[in-house]
Automatic annotation (TrEMBL):
Protein name, per record: Membrane protein 6-pyruvoyl-tetrahydropterin synthase-related domain-containing protein
Coiled-coil residue spans: none
Superkingdom field: Bacteria
Species, as recorded: Limosilactobacillus reuteri subsp. rodentium (strain DSM 17509 / CIP 109821 / 100-23) (Lactobacillus reuteri)
Keyword annotations from UniProtKB, A to Z: Membrane, Transmembrane, Transmembrane helix
Residue ranges of the TM segments: 12-32, 80-97, 104-124, 155-176, 188-217, 229-251, 294-312, 319-340, 352-370, 382-400, 550-569
Length: 583
């Protein structure tokens, strides 16, 4: 490749990245200019997670073992069970802008930018067509299900995980098809899915298993089996080391005691009615299900399906496979499958069958990009791409406008809007604030033996010498430290605190003296003597495994970045050297 071609390619990449920045901001613009965060299904849950990280970061800590500022101040160890690393950009942005509303939308814009970049990058590595890659990235980034995840559901973990699905898919495809050097796509892709959302990781692994089987059956001859297996092995090892900052502490806790399956739901009830799914998709409805809608793939991807049927004979075999898989996952979200039997299998962990729409949306985006090249052959590429982007944005904006119109009504505002952050606590309008205590799902990671006393713990009732006592003075004593204050502690010989036992807890009194403790029959902290102090401080202390996992992940990330930059600069300086030799 000549130096002039490299310059042109670099300029084109800069223009593409610039357009992606603009599109990312457009994605959030209809909401960010309102100055409020619209009430999504899991909004309170995830805003409290962000708030906890922000408060801890002010104290110089980002590894949060127990929540001491939020989640009812019960010492909830959410970050040990729910991935948190990919929330750190929100913390960084907040420290720059000091406004939580802007922070949330800029965080969503940031992950939209990464989605565009990763989808464009991986699609190009497969098809070697800039226009097709660009259009595929735009279709996926603005697809209805992704918009629903961001705003209607506010399912932040699942939304962020979608960012890395293109890396995961291409990485697996590359290994199976023989592009062995591209195994890091799978390694870091699945790692950051795991660092975003556990259920998405399981769904993506299931998808990869099906994809692998389909590719294997569709390939006439497989050679270099050992190299393929070695590449997969390297991807798995690096994925584990990269994810260890969450994975190892998580395993340490779930092996310590028993927990019930989080939020197990009736899969039959959650499966979508096919006619309703098609209706809401065609009408491009992205509002919440409480309004009588169902989550869907949107008008753009329905149009992709129609074109796929019309042009099926002209579509290359590899894209036919993608199209068929997309249709399979589309209908897998509906009641057409025997969910009565399926929910008895481990697949019940996905909770909602319509989560398969993530896979369907991504695969249909790939097909949509390919259909664009079929339709626009021998036409002006720049003009065609521009028109295509407009055609993607029009139904997207129509859905956004309809969603805002529904929840901007005066009778809806009190229920659906987050108001503001006051004194480090979120203030919601009356209709929402009444239900917030039930929206942090404390039962999910409460020990199984302690579920019967969850309401008592949430209301901060201690059992002191056999009597129930409400503790009114509970405060954070710093990162990973929760302080309980009561004069009843001084002379008591049997204290059961309103907090559950987890691994790596340490307890001291107000004088700093270490207090031995045991586990009550309901898995709560039981102390026999406070050593004449009216203060009891419960602290999560990082174990050696925690420390090693942090070092292992940081080391993997640094090594990955260094290798990536090294290859990038080697390629750049090779071209510069060739240019110098020409002179």
């Amino acid at each position: 490749m000549t130096y002039i071609k490299i310059q042109k390619r670099t300029l084109l990449n800069i223009l593409i990245l610039s357009s992606f920045i603009i599109l990312s901001l457009i994605f959030c613009l209809p909401f960010i200019k309102t100055g409020t965060i619209y009430y999504g299904d899991d909004m309170y849950y995830h805003l409290e997670r962000i708030n906890e990280l922000i408060r801890n970061a002010k104290n110089g800590n980002v590894f949060v073992g127990i929540y001491t500022y939020t989640f009812e101040k019960v010492g909830y160890p959410l970050n040990l069970f729910y991935p948190w690393i990919t929330l750190l950009p929100f913390v960084f942005i907040y420290n720059l802008v000091k406004n939580l509303t802007i922070t949330v939308y800029l965080g969503i814009a940031f992950y939209t930018f990464l989605t565009l970049v990763f989808t464009n990058w991986t699609t190009f590595r497969y098809c070697q067509n800039k226009a097709q890659s660009f259009v595929t990235a735009c279709i996926y980034a603005f697809c209805s299900y992704r918009v629903i995840d961001a705003f209607a559901r506010f399912a932040l973990g699942e939304f962020i995980a979608m960012t890395f699905l293109p890396l995961v898919t291409y990485g697996a495809y590359a290994i199976i098809k023989g592009n062995y050097k591209d195994w890091p796509f799978l390694a870091f892709g699945i790692s950051f899915v795991l660092l975003s959302h556990l259920l998405s990781t399981l769904i993506y692994v299931l998808f990869l298993a099906i994809l692998g089987i389909v590719i294997f059956l569709g390939t006439k001859q497989f050679n270099n089996i050992k190299i393929r297996i070695l590449s997969l092995f390297k991807a798995i090892i690096v994925a584990i080391t990269s994810s260890s900052i969450f994975l190892f502490p998580f395993l340490e806790q779930i092996l310590f005691q028993k927990f019930q399956q989080p939020s197990k739901l009736d899969m039959v009830e959650q499966a979508l009615v096919p006619s309703k799914l098609l209706e809401c998709s065609i009408n491009n409805i992205i509002s919440r299900t409480v309004n009588g809608n169902v989550y869907n793939i949107g008008f753009t991807l329905v149009f992709v399906i129609i074109l796929g049927i019309m042009y099926y004979r002209k579509i290359e075999q590899s894209y036919r496979m993608v199209f068929i898989l997309a249709i399979i996952f589309f209908f897998a979200s509906t009641s057409l499958l025997p969910w009565v039997q399926i929910e008895k299998t481990p697949i019940s962990f996905i909770q909602f069958p319509w989560r398969f729409l993530v896979i369907s949306s991504f695969l249909l985006s790939i097909v949509g990009g390919y259909e664009f090249t079929l339709i626009t052959q021998n036409k002006n590429k720049i003009l065609s791409v521009f028109v295509m982007v407009l055609l993607i944005l029009i139904p997207w904006y129509s859905g956004i406008s309809d969603m805002r119109r529904n929840i901007d009504r005066p009778d809806q505002y009190k229920t659906y809007h987050y108001v503001e952050l006051r004194n480090n606590r979120f203030k919601y309008s009356y209709g929402a604030e009444k239900t917030t205590k039930y929206m942090i799902y404390l039962d999910q990671y409460t020990p199984k033996k302690g579920l019967s006393t969850l309401n008592v713990v949430r209301d901060h009732y201690a059992m002191i010498d056999g009597k129930m006592v409400k503790l009114n003075k509970i405060k954070s004593a710093g990162s990973n430290k929760l302080e309980y204050i009561s004069d009843r502690f001084r002379d008591s010989k049997n204290i059961i605190l309103p907090m559950y036992v987890y691994r790596n807890l340490q307890i001291v009194n107000g004088n700093g003296e270490k207090l031995p403790f045991t586990t009550s029959k309901n898995s709560q902290i039981k102390i026999n003597n406070s050593l004449s102090s009216n203060k009891i401080i419960v602290q999560y202390k990082l174990s050696n495994l925690d420390i090693c996992s942090i070092i292992l992940s940081l080391g993997t990330w640094v090594f990955g970045v260094v290798v990536f930059l090294k290859r990038l600069f080697q390629k750049h300086w090779k071209v510069r050297f060739q240019k110098t030799k020409q002179y």
